[in-house]
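Quick one - inputs below.
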Amino acid sequence: MTTPLLEIDDLHTYFYTDNGVARSVDGVSFDVGVGETVGVVGESGCGKSVTALSILRLIRPPGRIEPGGAMRFEGRDLLALSEREMQQIRGNRIAMVFQEPMTALNPVFTVGDQIGEVARIHAGMNKRESLAKAIEMLELVGIPAPEQRAGEYPHQLSGGMRQRVVIAMALVMNPALVIADEPTTALDVTIQAQILELLADLTRRLGTSVLLITHDLGVVAENCSRVVVMYAGEVVEEATTIDLFARAHHPYTEGLLGAMPRVGGERERLATIPGTVPAPTAWPAGCRFRERCPYSWERCGTEHPPLYQIGGGHTSRCHLAEEPEHRLHPHPPLAAQAGASAA
Amino acid sequence: MTASIATPTEPLLSVRDLTKHFPIKKGIFGRVAGQVRAVDGVSFDVAPAETLALVGESGCGKSTTGRAILRLIEPTSGSVSFDGQNVLTLGATELRKLRRRMQIVFQDPFSSLNPRMSIGAIVREGLTIHRIAEGAAADARVKQLLDEVGLRPEYASRYPHEFSGGQRQRVGIARALSVEPSFIVCDEPVSALDVSVQAQVVNLLQDLQRDRGLAYLFIAHDLSIVEHIADRVAVMYLGHVVELASVDRLYGEPIMPYTQALLSAVPAPDPGVKRERILLTGDVPSPANPPSGCVFHPRCHHPARDAACAALVPPLEEKAPGHWAACIKQPPSTVSWEQQRAAGGTKPPEFFLPRAALHRAVASAPRDSTRNQS
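Output:
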C-alpha cells in the first residue's frame, strides 16, 4: 500500500434516538493511500454512508462522533479541528460526490454559479473568474457546449449530466480525496459506465484518492484496488480487490458474493443470506453475523471477534481465522432454523 | 410486425402494436402541444409458465407497457389478448373478472402497501373482492399464502411498517397470488432491495413459478438478474422493442447495437478481467421528440451506420430463428441495400459483434436451457 492520506482509527458514530442509542459506526478503522481508490461495500444500514459523513464531520444531532477515535488526514486529526478549520477542508481538500445529483444541486442557481461558488469560497475568485473556472470544469467532465450549459439550471440537465456537474464541483479545488457515496446508483447502466470511466480517468490524471462507497460488488471489482466490507457498523473484512474476490474469508462476504447473479455466470439457484441485519440499537453480543452464518459455533455467541490478520494485509472479523475446521461443517444458519421469518 | 414473434407454444398473452402516447399540455386551457411517445408499437407474446423479461433504461417505456397490458393505464392503441380474450375492449365487470388471472407486483414495497391495513387484510382483500373465500376459510387461506411466501402466519395481524423491504415485497407477492393468477407483471420487484434479500425474492419467484406454472412479465433494468430469471428477453429503447430473443441467444450474440452497449456496460464482479466497454455518447433522447428512422441511430456505434439509419424505420425482423432485432445494418435485413442506398445510405450492411458485448462464459460455452420447465 502507498503512504496513507487518510487514516481512520477506531471511529464511533452514535445516534441518540428515542428508541435507544444507534451505534451506526462502531469502531471502524481503515486507511486510504495517496492516489488509491478504496471501495467500501455493504448493504443498507451497515454504516458505510455514516462513515463517509463522519470523515467530513457532517454528523448532526442526535448523532455524534464519540471521543476516543482519530481520523488523520494530511498530518492533522480531523476530529481535533475547529469547525472553521473543517470548513477549509470540505470541498477543498476533501470533496464529496453524493448519490442523488438532483438533491445535491440547488435548483434555483445555475450550474455555472454552483460550480463557481466552490472557487469563490476556497480560492477567493471573483464572479467572472469563477465562471471561467466553472466552464473549464464542465469541459473537463465532458459536457458539450460548456459555455451554454453553465447558464442552465439543474432541471434542464439529464441525470447523467447532473452527476457530471456534481463531479465537476468536487474537483474544482483539485482535492486530495474524493468521497463518492453511491455515485451511480441512481443512474442507468450505460450512464453508470460513462460516469465511472470519467471518475477513474480524472482521478488518475489528477492523482486524487477516492473512497468509493457502494453496494455493487461489480462496481468495486472494476474500480477499486482495495475493499473494505462493512456489516452492522463494523469492518468485517479488508483485502485487495483481487484477494477479496478470489479468497473471501468472512462468511458475510462469501454470502454477498454468492447472492449476486453474474452476467455470463451459471444459472444455478442464487445463494441467499437468511435473516436480516440486526437493529443498530441492539447489536447482538459476540459476532454480529452469527444468526445468519452457516458456520457459527458456541464461541461466536460469547466472544466478539477481533479483526484477525490472515496474511498479506487481508483481515477478517471471524473466528474461523483461528479455528478454520468449522468451515468444514456448514449448517442452516440460526435465522433460518428459527422458522419462516426470513426476509 | 407479424404474428411470428410468437412463442413456440400457444401464447397466454399476446401484445400487438401496443401504443401509449401521453399528451403534453401547455397553458391554462390545457392545449395539447405534443405527444410523449412512451410506448410506440410494441409487440410480443408470453407463453404459459414462461418468463419474458422486458429490459431497458429509465424512460424506455417498459413500466408503461406493463401497466397498459393490465389497463392500469389505458393504451392509446394496439391490441392485447389474454387467453384468447381481447383485454382492451372489455367492460368494467369483465375486466375485474380478468384481473383475477392477471396480477402485478410493484417495485416499491413501501408505497404499494396501505399502511393502515394489516398485512392479513391486504392479502385478504382480493379474496373478498373476487368472492373467493370469506370468514374462517379466508383466514386460513391468508395464513397459507403468507406461509407460502415465507412469512410467519401469525404476522397477519401486523402492519406494513413492522416489516423490512424484503418482507414487504413478500406481502406484495402474497397479495398477487391470493386470487390465483396465471400471469403476473413483476415491475422491478427486486430493484429496491439489498443484494442478499434480492436473491431471496428471486428464488421465491422462481419457486412459485415452478409450483404453480405462473407466467411472468419481468420488468427490470438489471441485466444480471434478468439473465438469471428469464426464458426470453425483450430489450426496449425509447418506446420500441429493439431486440427479442431467448436468454442464451441475447446474452450470447446480441445483434442490436443498443443491446451490445447495454451488455458491455454491466460491471463484471471479476477483478483482474479488464472488460472492454462500448461507451455510448450522450443521453437517451426525449420520447417527446424521438429521432427519425432508427431511434438509436444518434448514439449508435455500428461501423456501417449512415444516412439510411436516420431515414428508414428498421422493422423488428427475425435475424436468426427466434431471434428478432431491429437493425437494417445487421444482415439479413428485409430492407435491401438498394433501398438503403436510395435513402442516402453509403455503407453496406455488415455483421458487427464487438468483443466488448460478449461475456466470456456465454461466448465460450453456451449453456443449455434445462431450466425451462414449461
